[in-house]
Amino acid sequence: MIDWQELYARALLYHDFLARYGTEAHRERWKGMFERVALTPAHRELLAGFPRQMHLLCLAGAWCGDCVREGAVLQRIAESSSKIGLRFLDRDDTPDLTTALALNGGLRIPVVVFLSEDYLECARYGERTLATYRKMAAEKLGPNCPTGIVPPGGEYLGTVTAEWIDEIERVQLMLRLSPRLRALHGD
What we know:
Helices cover 52% and strands 13% of the residues.
């Protein structure tokens, strides 16, 4: 069984993760992406209204292009809510966890594990959002893609951000409606 609390305790904050695992070029890529991520007023209002503490544990690599985008989005979201803790673990430094979080038979990143306030696993999400897969399908499979996927519009990064917020909200609602946590908090 995975000890999520222990892993979260040794995981690193965003800037510490980049300082330890990223080169100067990696840090510049993450910084550039972070500066492009914007939350809407509706996103900020939603995040500010979260009543339950949640912990997001992101398995990532500073060198990974998907991690640059997703990590920057997650950091922007976490900075906008006192109820969201975000930590990062390096894929190559945690081989057992990397194997445990494999997706579709592959060691993919980023993968986020959503944890309750008492470090119980609530969900996993990764490694790419639907918008990213739609974009990739349009680029790789072309207009005759047999799945009928329509690529996202020009606000791709905004769509990716909204998809992460939707998943975070889904888990927040799970926590808010949890009989166990409602009994604990008397609400």
